[in-house]
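Aim 2 progress update. The chain analyzed this quarter is reproduced below.
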Amino acid sequence: MPCPPISALARAFLSCPPDARQLAEAAASALGHNWRWLRPLAKRFAQTFALAPRPRHRDVMDFIRRDARFREAWSKYPQRIRVAHPLTAPQPMQPVAAAAGWEIPAIETVGALALWLEIDTSELDWFADLKSFTYKTASPQLRHYRYRVLLKQSGNIRLIEAPKPRLKRLQRRILTGILDRIPLHPAAHGFRRGHSIKTFAAPHTGQRVVLRMDLRDFFPSIIGVRVQAFFRTAGYPEAVADLLGGLCTNAAPPDVWRGAAAECAVPLDPRLLHEARALYSRPHLPQGAPTSPALANLCAYRIDCRLSGLAQSAGARYTRYADDLAFSGGVGGEALDGAVEALAAAILREEGFAANHRKTRIMRQGVCQRLAGLVANQRVNVPRADFDNLKATLTNCIRHGIEGQNRHAHPAFRSHLEGRVGFVESINPARGARLRALLERIP
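Predicted structure tokens:
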């Protein structure tokens, strides 16, 4: 089936909101004739894509091509259905209903995006790298990221991907100009101004049962097409959304892993190394880019909605700090023992994530209920052992000198101690004041 009429119809449908009347008028203008089948086709299109993110051009073409009424009309009038007025104007912003109130800049063309980022279009294509050129090149100088392989305590492998200065500047522009202006789900506490691990753990204090879960490979599990779909949900045209997604995602080249075994002091498990290489080889949110934390929260919005609903149905509370999930309460706490855990794991799997079952914990009042490194039994507090160790270190610094306590060779040990004391002050001001008094006595 020839493509020009279908492509013209697709452009017409993408040029206006998913309203049947407006879609039919735009399609009639493009074809130069108000065919009888246009309005029913526009109505079916509106019903299909009204609640979904802005579709891609190829998806709209496939929808029209598979429509039975259009195929019937084309078989009857193949010579008469022609493009009369091809649309050349840029596609306008079309956010979904929930995003209509977001105060984000309207960017409708690739040229407008380049102007907003203060670069030219060739540089924009180079940094977005939609054709995966930097994935294929063997020259580190031509790549936009620097890589470092780390081994977690659990034995799993993590790849730190730090963007180079020019790309990092573009990402910061996207973060401050777009992402920071989009509201997050109330349950999200990580990477959010005015929130911390203290606000994450506070709703779960004094509860009979606390369920702690962990997301496995949080950042690399959010793939590039998901990020591009988010930008289309915000209303950006397909070309602009793809470039924004390309600027914020990365695929790690294969040769990054060749020296991984030499960099780590502990031998790497070949099976885990193979899994990590496959995971990071597809476009994903890089851990190290300034845009990744905000995009991770935004892409996890649907998860937060579903898990909040699950907690509410069980009479429980739910919060999330990055990849840490916490539930507490329930009807006597029994619902958290198995049902909530199983349903939460199923929801995560449906949303493209996986629960790290080795880190799942069900904690009752008789044990230390720890969330994100804090104790949440009666009130949010620093673990007693951590407080005692820091207090002993400060006391020894007063008695024997500060340099003799720098066992891990911190380059600025006093600043390191000030940071640890400041953290305790932010969690428990009374305990922090005691440590601060000791710190000020150190010469």
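Residues 384-400 form the longest helix (17 residues). The chain has a mean pLDDT of 89. These observations will guide the mutagenesis experiments scheduled for the next reporting period.
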